[in-house]
Amino acid sequence: MSVILKATNISKQYRLGLVGTGTISHDLNRWWHRVRGKEDPYLKIGAVNDRSAKADSDYVWALQDINFEVQKGEVLGIIGKNGAGKSTLLKILSRVTGPTTGDIKTKGRIASLLEVGTGFHPELTGKENIYLNGAILGMSKAEIKAKEAEIIEFSGCARYVDTPVKRYSSGMRVRLAFAVAAFLEPDILVIDEVLAVGDAEFQKKAIGKMQDISKGDGRTVLFVSHNMAAVKSLCTRAIVLEHGTSVFEGGTDEAVGYYLKGKGDFSNRKQFGELYNNETFQLNQICINNELKTFKDILVENEVIDLITEIDLKTDSPEDYHITYHLYNEMGENMFAFTHWRNDIALRKGINKVLCKIPKYFLQSGQYFLTFLVVEKRKKAIFIEQDILNFTVVDGNRVIGDYMGKEPGYIRPDFKWENLK
To answer: With contact defined as beta carbons under 8 Å apart, do 67 and 89 qualify?
Structure first.
């Protein structure tokens, strides 16, 4: 495959608190350095783009030294926390704004969908905006006419195509904007976190269309989203941005794993001290490890996993309480709940060390989050703590040639099979 987009040393600097580049003195200083053939003096200063830290400079680097290549037909995911520089990068790639340093080389037409209704004129009708956006992309009226019916049908806005866009809901705008961008056949389609505005049905439809664009038509998609499930299902490769710099580039699964691991403190044991201490109980620690191993060892899928909860019950009726866990996958989806009371194990007053055994091969390799609850029987949960323990399960040792890639889903129950013949 050939390279269709190449970004080299892309950086973007902004001045804080003011519109434009800054003061007259700064602009004159820049001019004087340029006249003498010297570098802009303000490129040597500037803070890292960390929005949680107090500014100690008049300048900030929204992006700094970003380098990557995109092959024709590739779907590249760009992920990171809010303020990491994702939207700034897409605006530079779409030529909405220019980079402070660096350059971008592209082949073919670029269509961007950066914000709801980007490029739409509010006073024009939906149909008129289709032709306006097509003309901006450099398409002839005949080319746009050939795609008009498909665009309108896909958007689901047939009733309103002759109505001014200013009367559209945000969902209708993004549906029509996506349809225009997708069906007018750009060589590179740039999409920011706009699909979140659409309903679930449209999101599924849009992701399917993007897959058709990349696989069937061989066109390139750059996709920014906080929906890790969408990134995993759509992208072939991903870049992780942090504070305006690229911190990881590689396969989608690895990039999503890197991003999610950065969001949480992954550890196989948590000791709480006085953190969760009240009149009913004190939670001392939660530990997870493979059977006959310690919490310091890596969790593997092909061995039994022990989950140990140490809790000190202070009540005179400890049998009225039980502990419950909710297990979430790396996408934040609630997989299932489990509790000890179904095994007729009663808690006692004082320190309890409760062991739960998870069968081998039950959990697929991946990252998991546990929510902890203390429940009073026949009443309600008296304590809930989300993401109290985060852990990672990796592939166990397998025979060479046996592993054909990660199987679908998150659990691998070992059902009992019989041949009744």
So the answer is: no
Q: What token pair was written down for 260? A: 């999610």
**Separation between Cα atoms, residue 381 and residue 373, nearest integer Å:** 6
Which is nearest to 49 in space by CA: 262, 287, 246, 292? 246
User: Hey, which residues does 246 pair with through a beta bridge?
Assistant: 241
Asked if residue 313 has pLDDT above 80, the reply is: yes
Could you give the CA distance from residue 271 to residue 284 in angstroms, rounded to a whole number? 6
Q: What tokens does 117 get? A: 């209704």
The Cβ of residue 354 has, within 10 Å, a number of other Cβ atoms equal to: 15
Residue 48 pairs in a beta bridge with 61
Distance between CA atoms of residues 412 and 255, nearest Å: 24
181, HSE (Cβ side, Cα atoms, 13 Å): 31
pLDDT tens digits for 161-182? 999 988 988 778 888 888 887 7
Map residue 210 onto helix, strand or coil: helix
Give residue for tokens 């620690």. Answer: 285
Query: Which domains can be identified in the chain, with CATH numbers?
Result: 65-261 (3.40.50.300), 269-394 (2.70.50.60)
Nearest to 290 by CA among 235, 357, 196: 357
288 and 363 Cβ atoms separated by less than 8 Å: no
Beta sheet of 59-71, edge-to-edge order: 47-48, 59-71, 3-15, 101-106
Residue 95 predicted with pLDDT over 70: yes
